[in-house]
Amino acid sequence: MPGNDTDDISVELQYPMALLKESATPDVPTKIHARVKARWKSGFSESSFRKILYFTGVCVLVLLAAIFLSLVIASFPAIRHFGVGFLSGSTWDPVRGEFGALPFVVGTLIVSFLALIFSVFLSLPTSIFLGEYFTRGATCTFIKSMIELLAGVPSVIYGFCGLFLLTPLVRSLEVKLGVAPYGVGILTAALVLSVMIIPYSASIGREVINLVPADLKEAAFSLGATRFEVIRKVILPYARSGIFAGILLSLGRALGETMAVTMVIGNSNFIPTSIFSPSNSLASAIANEFTEATGRLYLSSLIELGLVLFVITTVINVLGKVIVRQMGVEG
Amino acid sequence: MREFPVRKRILADKLFKAIILLLSFACILPMFFILFFITSKGISVINWNFLTQLPKPVGEAGGGIFNALIGTLMLIAVSTLLSVPMGVLAGIFLSEYRKGRLVYLVRLSIETLQGIPSIVIGIIAYVWIVLPVGSFSALSGGVALAMMMLPVIITVTEETLKLIPDSLREASLALGVSYPRTILKVVLLSGLSGILTGILLSVARVAGETAPLLFTAFGSPFMGFNILKPVNTLPLIIFNYATSPYPEWHRLAWGASFVLIVFVLGINLFTKLVTRRWKVQF
Amino acid sequence: MESTILRIEYFNAFYGQTTVLKDIKLSIPQNKITAIMGPSGCGKTTLIRCVNRMHELNPDARVSGRILLDDEDIYARDPIIVRRQIGMVFQKPNPFPTMSIYENVIAGYQLNGIHLSKEEKEKIVTESLRKAALWDEVKESLHRKGTFLSGGQQQRLCIARALAMQPEILLLDEPTSALDPKATSHIEELVAELKNNVTIMLVTHNMAQAARVSDYTAFLYLGELIEFGATGTIFTAPKDKKTEDYLTGKFG
Questions:
Q1: What CATH number does the domain located at C4-94+169-247 have?
Q2: CA-CA to A68 of 20 to 30 Å: which in A159, B26, C1, C158?
Q3: The pTM is what?
Q4: Is B280 in Cβ contact with C111 (below 8 Å)?
């Protein structure tokens, strides 16, 4: 229609009509563009589209910056009040208004590193299993899918199962050892967490082990080495940094994990004294107390815990990604 | 130099393989335990009442998870609506502009975003939405979940679109199709299956999230469709019931866990099966 | 009397600092097949990509000079309109994989948001596929995806798709180099018939093809137009020594 300059241009083509009419003369050039030219409008133009794309990219940056800034600003009352002492303060007593993060930092670190050690015991063999022994076929697909499913199970379900299945076991162990039978505590949390983080190191480990060049392995085999020796002396050293990066990544995941840990760590605000002690991680402290926080100082202290957690996990994750990139493997 | 006798080496090799096999299968044992317990304890709880009733107060038997089911769906809807348009556009941005300072910074931001613990995201949603609005709400929960979905959607979109050969763009441009239409109607459409898969997978992930909802959506015993009011979700109800001292509620938590696991693992399985069929050949 | 449909005047093309085409002056006759030939890297693909303004998709690309279509400088107009008047078929067949054969042919209209009635669409599809000598082979399976066709059929589909836009000029960038000999000869026969409807510029690295198919030939070397003339004349009595050397295989 004349004057219509919206995106969808209705063009009456004479072309098909000319064909239908027997009398159409062959040298009547019925061209579309002649009509389109008269009313063409680019509508959604290229430059506006590109601007939108650019803008979206900038939005992502802004989002991240806003997150960091919000954390800092919201924890400001606590930062101003406690300063650096926040991290070294060993008392977290909301009633008296004393907020020191040390119990949670200690709790987080112990649980995470313990979980890491437990999980490496299982994930490294699995990486070797999938990367070297069974690189394809039904067994491989089965184990790989199972590991992926492990990553898909929601954290609260891990916590639930940990609470009802694992805690009684730990409790009876504690009874046998003559320790206070809480059942919950650092050990339980570390065990549950270790299962949750297996997929992260297992999949990266599998990839790097798989990528070890065949000619290196063949050279070793041809010298009469057994598979065990090839793995020990050729594959693992070569894949070392990739495996390490995978471990770092699962550490990052462990540090930030909340629900499963919250449900089995025992919710104690004191610095833990043994692996059977109840404790709290940074994340579980926030989870447990956030909705009950009264007063600006309390709330901003909890938010500062979040800021600390943010910084720690970001540093670990970036470190892991940097190492992965240096190895040339897609993490 | 003393040489290690060959027989010992072969023995060590076989032993090693056995240990590796054992530990690898041990790795997946927890999965079996979890599935077994949830199914055995949860399946008996599932009945029509369970799925269609609201939670009952403490002491009363029965009750259901209906509001949690609706709440979960509501949050998924809100977070998908918020994260998909921006995520897909940002993914297009990254795949069209492969190099450059902004691209590098955006990639870095996405990786950082992906690593932020979910509870910290919850804090952010609390500060940004719950405080100004004045109450817990489905909206704040949706915003938190959207921030968690965003990096995944961007990455999946970028990866999918990068695989689409330039020849397709050229074919479209040579027909006089404008650049925006070429990207949206040709390139994006060709990559649709990959992007949809990514969206489904991130939905599966956020459906099971609890931490960011603890002080945003918060949970509620009531039924509601108002996104400015607190809302209950499956993971929240599992958390609240499991950590309560009432055995009746524990029973319901097993049932809810069963529903949740079926949902989450179901989506994962679905995407695995369907991806192969949807894949576009070039 | 032959008329000139496209005039290329004092045309240069650059990629960043590198000059790819130098001072090209060429008149393309209407409704004839003009072959553009030359050794690798001589700029022939760049030349036709400048004609439909695909060259400038590269951010480092620059041009100077004029290319006049029907006496209008295409560089003074919207590139999108130019590309609707000048169609292109690429070296590797690239039908849209998510579309059926039917949809592929009218893709130019659909993607541009141009509404057509069902009869109009059917007419265009039938006509274009007939002109591309593909109709008989696919008329039963118009609604299947285009990717199951053989290489030669896919290329003819791409030709049909370009023809559906009723372009004035059809640019063929080495259209048969990815095809087997049988498919190649099909396309060559097809091209010979097409010239009644469109003007054709055919880039080829295959001299024999240029000799078989074209009415006029342009020989490019290192970005310069060395010689242009009737194919018969070029191949039997080339005026420039470089042309003669190329034809006799002294370099390629």
A1: 3.40.50.300
A2: A159
A3: 0.85
A4: no
